[in-house]
Specification:
Elements: H1 7-13, E1 27-29, H2 31-41, H3 47-62, E2 69-75, E3 90-99, H4 104-170, H5 176-208, E4 218-221, H6 234-238, H7 245-266, E5 272-281, E6 286-294, H8 299-369, H9 375-410
Parallel strand pairs: 1-4
Antiparallel strand pairs: 2-3, 3-5, 5-6
Helix pairs in contact: 2-4, 3-4, 4-5, 4-7, 4-9, 7-8, 8-9
Length: 417
Amino acid sequence: MHLKCLFLVVLFTTTGPLVRAQQALSDTITLRDAINATLEANPRLRSFPLLEEALAGERETADLNPAFRVNSNVENVLGTGSLGDFSSTELNLSLSQVVEMGDKRTIRVNVINRKFDLLNTERRVTELDLLGEVVRRFIDVASAQERWALQQQATAISSQTIELLTPLVDAGQTPQLELNRAQAALIRARTAEQAAASYLEDSRLRLSNMWAVNSPQFEGVSSDFLAVGQSNSIESILSDVESNPNIEIFADESRLLEAELRQAQAKQQGDIEWSAGVRHLRELNDTGFVFGVSIPLMSKSRASGNIRTTRANLQEVEIRRATSLNRLIGEISSLHKQLLQAISEVDSLRSEVIPLLNSAMQDTREAYLAGGYSYLELISAQQEYLDAQFALINSATNAHKFRAEIERLSGQPLPSQ
């Protein structure tokens, strides 16, 4: 599989069940394997189902009409004089309810629905951040694999140099000093190889931590690491930048505030409370019906503060959105230039520089055997070849990371080959 940043595709299209993360991702894994395992097992995603359940409870409560109330009171009892006993008692029993004006129940439910929308976008943002981190750590493992393989090659070149020098030293054609230097170079190469292997192990551990596994079972990752491909134009990349969840979240926040504004405006219409019941007068031994209506005064002025606050918050969200969008465009533009430079470096190193240095290293080896070049020229040619290979890995690593970050920020995948 080519090293493509698949997290956006998975983020917006994965609907089926994911593989079990603990199903020991073994042997060689792909980027999609790592993404699936992270989406299933990363602890940061476990809170969202609970938050959804909490909102579902809020919506259930918001959808209720005001409850009926039973009211009862006793008057003219245990007083003084003629009211000192129960002979003049008045007993009231009534039923009451608040009648909400302005369709408040529907508006309350709509506010909760907008909170659901905002929560879903927040989850997408979290998933996008997590998957962006998965891609970066996957790239680190792929890069560490390449470095380890190159260090093994460096060790092999050092061993071959010793094999080349040993018979020449025995024959007296080359001083012992050069063989000692070659042996020291071999020791350093082996040390560097061990360091590269350790870094690879650390990179594997950091990747597996994304799906909460502290003892990685996989041996390596599958990628065409040096295939960096080309990039889309900056215009096409920026054309859909507003669809990124990091920008869409402002739209969801605005819709929530608009719903809250309608809720505040609805409170300008005071609710009416009615009551109906019976009153029994013991002194007359008569019973009569009682009706009542309660209407709050100055509801409009009491709601004006909330309306003013919500409108100000709406304007503030729009300012934050414009600021974030401007920053996002600037970051993408900068990363795009760095991506083009990294791609150019990879193409130049692969197609021109490394083939020339490889040929020069072989020619220098043959010339050294023929006595035409010194040991210093031989090891210089070898080191130049290895330095170019390391530079190729660095440039490819940068290209993949720049592409991954552009995808995360722009909301669209870029071609990698």
